Amino acid sequence: MANPFAMPQPLEIRRVNPLELSVLWADDHRSTYSSDYLRKVCPCESCHEERRQSETGLRVISQEVPTRVEMSQISGVGRYAIQIQFSDGHNTGIYSFNLLRKLCPCRECREAWEQKE
After folding, report:
1. Where along the sequence do coiled-coil regions lie (predicted)?
2. Is 57 left (phi over 0), alpha (psi -120 to 50) or beta?
3. Which bin fits 37, alpha (ψ -120 to 50), beta or left (φ > 0)?
């Protein structure tokens, strides 16, 4: 595995289906994210504040929000990020490429980030 701390550059960002996003990085690493995971870690200010107030650091989803959300649209933001429109109407989070790489749920990336911190 290449250095996950280097400036990440995606070669391909693809919505595999409404529940899954795939990113192929320039170092040939592929990250696969579920829509539920990306919604729960949304970096927008209101979600960040909700997580800050939570003991676990994860966003507490109220019962009005469906437990299964889909990604209805993905848009590029400049050359550094994407923005996701979720089926629950939420669309204010900007997922930078740095953040996406750090959020990679694979075991190798999680272990690398844990060792760094």
Report:
1. none
2. left
3. alpha
